[in-house]
């Protein structure tokens, strides 16, 4: 309207003065125009529109350099449905948007282009929320760090123990924060508290349907509701799987919806089920949902029939080794068994890419400090591996990269891979179960969505293996409408809404809650209490926990206590009180002769239920008999006397009441304590009879929780001694390597030991390295890996330098 108004008025002015547009200079026109107040107002409106999202070039408003980088770094030359999505009116006008497509449909590309527009054109910061730490690191290092270096913006990781609160305030550069769900919530709280939320121009949520996923869904809902309530300037973009109740999410976010059934390069997905020897194609139009396709062509001996009654070998050998295959299994143990079983009948596969498989075996051995999983040692020569949480992060990465390059042609994996790194393949579902639970429709669609390798296959196939007893339930699974997504703020006795209200004291809480998904769905969820009743009940609970207090005698005037403030800024409300008591008790007799006492205080509470100590290992094989006198004293002080463990190890009944939570926490603490001394995940896992994957998960969770406890103590003066102690412990737990290797560990995915031995001792040295020289120096290092490592080191170095420069500038501007 503003542009049309200016054009019309200028045209009238020119005609009225009998001049042609060609003969009138721009300056003269504007001089003529200012006589009219209407033109002046229209010009201001036009300038505001131009300033909102400046057009910097031909690639969706971005410079040509962005298009060149997309081609160079991603191999992207043409956009498909993304072009229509980016040209939507709501996108052009910066309104909120939810878009949903099948797995591998290229959803992230739209988000990345919008992020780049926000960073480069509008000069605003962006927040990209991803569900897992591994995905955050993948996007930060492999995805966007190189773009940041080329286009001059910062890429900052907020995952695990990484991330600054509040974030560094930058004058000259914009930042892209890539964060896990929990870290994103803390970041938003920090920006609100420092009155900087309006600096956030765009918030992108991947896997938006996780709003319906328990406590993590509640955290996503809190984050989005706060941004919606506190900032009109922040645009929200959500990427989601197809949902049955997408309109609820649209209402919650005030968003429009775009959907498309696109699959890359027209790769058609065909879904099948296998019953006995028969393959049926899934067809919702059929009365029984299944249409006969073919009989399975195989010849099994009687012994082979016993070993493989579901004919998995027959199914996989139809496609491997020329095509890749994923076999989803219900349990971790089943993954390993299936991988081993398949290899027994793949004798002809040993020569296929033999040299590359030998290199992979060497890398797996080097990553395990000389140790290697016996199952992988046996299966990798056949191009087969398993993939589940029992592997270390290094093993998972090596296996994923080898599979994506075709060195491995088959992975037997659990359902977690379906939501992880994009590894397109032909898919076999070993069973319609995850452990003992029947698959959800959304889980099934994620798994089968992996089928079809873009650019190679024209058709993707998925085959679900069924037993007759599961036939009717399977019909619902493959043909039913998509599941709906519901608010989780009221789950776990309302833990989510309690946390939300705690962080909102001082605001109009009832008005705020009207902007939640819970409010949109309260009738569907059969919420018995009114919104105000819920608020009052939550306030009473928070007062009971001494997290808020009423400062007025007559009318309620609520304030957050110091404990309440420390809680909502850093730790889960469900264990804030016990953490506070443990830390206070720890101060009374803090043992600092070793790290054990501090490690115990930051051992995560939420992993305790997963801990089932082997009492003999606990007492005889572990550290208990090797603890120093002060460490044994500390163990007894936290409620774990050596005599108790000795009796349990001997199989005796223990009549004396002992806090089992403290006992299990101490067991996990000993694992962590051993890791800090040994730094060898394999050796510690073997010593404690635990899977190496669990040991690494424990270490990662402890470093994250240590960081949270550090922020918790920063808000409470009485806990001041912990601040300096936990700062160093966080670094130790985050990297768990020898001190000299810590600088190199900041580069995600780095081969720290090989680099150190090759003479690359600092971040600066690595940032200045020539990738080609790196490839020649380090054995089995690919050019792409070297480029990414150097780019990551440069980004981290830039971030540190920029932070120091900001501090200098701030000091120089002080009066």
Automatic annotation (TrEMBL):
A molecular function GO annotation: 3'-5' DNA helicase activity
UniProtKB keywords: ATP-binding, Chromosome, DNA damage, DNA repair, DNA-binding, Helicase, Hydrolase, Isomerase, Nucleotide-binding, Nucleus
This enzyme's EC code(s): 5.6.2.4
Subcellular location: Chromosome; Nucleus
Biological process per Gene Ontology, one example term: DNA repair
Superkingdom field: Eukaryota
Principal place of residence: nucleus
Extent of the signal sequence: none
InterPro entries from the UniProt entry: DEAD/DEAH_box_helicase_dom, Hel308_SKI2-like, Helicase_ATP-bd, Helicase_C-like, HTH_61, P-loop_NTPase, POLQ-like_helical
Domain (Helicase C-terminal) ranges: 311-505
One GO term describing the cellular component: nucleus
Function of the molecule: Single-stranded 3'-5' DNA helicase that plays a key role in homology-driven double-strand break (DSB) repair. Involved in different DSB repair mechanisms that are guided by annealing of extensive stretches of complementary bases at break ends, such as microhomology-mediated end-joining (MMEJ), single-strand annealing (SSA) or synthesis-dependent strand annealing (SDSA). Possesses both DNA unwinding and annealing activities. Forms a complex with RAD51, stimulating HELQ DNA helicase activity and ability to unwing DNA. Efficiently unwinds substrates containing 3' overhangs or a D-loop.
Alphabetical list of PANTHER family matching this protein: DNA POLYMERASE THETA, PUTATIVE (AFU_ORTHOLOGUE AFUA_1G05260)-RELATED, HELICASE POLQ-LIKE
Name of the protein in question: Helicase POLQ-like
